[in-house]
Design brief:
By secondary structure, the protein is an alpha+beta fold. It is about 15% helix and about 35% strand. A three-stranded antiparallel sheet has the order 2-1-3, with no helix packed on it. It has a three-stranded antiparallel sheet with strand order 4-5-6, with no helix packed on it. Strand 5 and strand 6 form a beta hairpin. The protein is elongated, with a radius of gyration of 20 Å.
Length: about 110
């Protein structure tokens, strides 16, 4: 893949997932015998001498635990609730939300 040097490693992993179907949690990116962290910016790795004008990165595929989010499968859904009030009355609305992609599953109403 050709990527922009302003990208961080998490963006590269997203691009790899889209191109190959390998989940981002199953990817380890290695450059010059060092694992790259998701927050690393590619241009900074070039500036510190890891690369010479280009950065050759190897993909190591691993098996990792997945979350239960039906949308992204990156993290587990967590329970939350909102207090709702309108002309019909007031109630607590429960839902589960994914902290990664913000997918929301509405649950029942609590009186």
């Amino acid at each position: 893949l050709d990527v922009d040097s302003s990208w961080n490693v998490a963006q590269v992993k997203d691009e790899i997932e889209e191109a190959t179907g390998i989940h981002v949690y199953d990817q380890r990116l290695i450059a010059c015998d060092c694992e790259l962290d998701d927050g690393d910016i590619l241009s900074e790795k070039l500036a510190f001498g890891i690369g010479e004008g280009f950065l050759s990165v190897s993909l190591m595929r691993t098996e990792s635990a997945k979350g239960n989010c039906p949308s992204c499968q990156r993290t587990d859904m967590v329970y939350d609730e909102d207090f709702v009030s309108d002309k019909r009355g007031a109630w607590w609305q429960g839902y589960k939300i994914c902290r990664s992609c913000h997918h929301k599953q509405r649950l029942g109403v609590c009186p």
